[in-house]
Amino acid sequence: MNPSTASLLEFLDNSPCNFLAAANVAAALDNAGFTRLLMSDSWALEPGGRYYVVQNDSAVFAFVPGIAAPEYGFKIVCAHSDSPGFRIKPSPEMVGKSPILKLNTEVYGGPILYTWFDRPLSISGRVILRTDNPLRPETRLVNFRRPLLTIPHLAIHYNRSVNEGNPLSRQKDMLPVLAILRDKAEADGYLLRLVAEELGVAPEEILDFDLTLYDTTPACLFGPSEEFISSGRIDDLEMVHAGLTALTASLDTDSAMTRVLAVFDNEETGSGTKQGAASPILRDILRRVADSLGGDGEESFIRAVANSFMISADNGHALHPNYEEKQDPTNLPALGGGPVVKINANCKYMTDADSAAVFRAICQKAGVPVQTFVNHSDVAGGSTLGNILTSQMPLRGVDMGAPQWAMHSCRETAAVADHLSTIATFSTFYRL
Ligand code: ZN
Known about the structure:
Blueprint: H1 3-14, H2 18-31, E1 35-37, E2 51-55, E3 59-64, E4 74-80, E5 85-95, E6 100-108, E7 121-129, E8 138-143, E9 177-180, H3 190-199, E10 206-215, E11 220-222, E12 228-231, H4 234-249, E13 258-264, H5 281-292, H6 298-306, E14 309-313, E15 316-317, E16 340-342, H7 353-366, E17 371-373, H8 386-389, E18 397-401, E19 403-405, E20 412-415, H9 416-431
Parallel strand pairs: 1-2, 4-13, 4-14, 14-18, 15-19, 16-17
Antiparallel strand pairs: 2-3, 3-13, 5-6, 6-9, 7-8, 7-10, 11-12, 12-20, 16-18, 19-20
The structure holds zinc ion.
């Protein structure tokens, strides 16, 4: 197996949620000699240095300041750390007529609900612990790794028409079961006790948590030539991994422009958080980079932005062999056919002819085929990071992604060839 493919599978398995994805990106940056900076500190940056910032434990912004004046601008790849799924609600324990403990959950983003049934699920996320200072509690990440729960489907004998369409209630049908209790009184505080034991702390120390469910089935390749990738969270961890791999691989060359990798959180819910693409976080960081490199305030920052280019990397839809009629009739991105430029007449994507041309030229320089996605005109498409970011900064840039099937399924499918092509494209971009 190609080392980049093996590294992607490992990254997918070790990143079951946004917090762990961000932690794994940060660890890879540490290994590559990057220094972590705090937004609350003052910065003294060196041209060619390696730095990163973590926001809310769930977004990461890495940058390598250019060796030329800051007005040369930024080469940015951005992607997102979050995936649709289920978040555990506060006080989640529920017990019915039998001593079975289930957990109350809330849907995060837009998962394909029925792909989550009957899988060996586990829990990961962030737990906040009490300290002496109420303003500064301690954050710990948790990942149980072992199967703990399942969302059991109703037997077909109770719903003979299940295969003719089966509307699902998020509050009734989708709740995971966690345990067979000896005594129903055990239910109260069960989850906190379980988490506390995993972390080696007392349950009373836990002030709050952000915990989500994930499928414990490992990522794998399939197909006679191992040409397909099967995993949860391919959208958008494949692009996070491609950006990270390309950035660290490009460090052996100097660049006049500042290289940036931005991994935002909360794309799946509209990016409207302090760690999302709609916040000023990236603009704040880039402005500080420009100032620290000797920029002359807002004017030189505006000049830097005007000279910049962004690749907004969020996976796209490959032509589905069972639903060819869903795709645009003349633009048919194939799985395995290379990265996909996304274009929308109503500007849901930031791509225009100019930025698409730049991206196609980069792909050509990388020796990689490039494809085009537009929506079938009767099908409403999704949105992504690029056009949200342009409300913060008037960046020139392109929306693209690797093609995939079953976006937002618990188990998505992509192609090995597209991942390698995307890494080659991003590496070429960072080396320009
Ligand atoms: Zn996405």
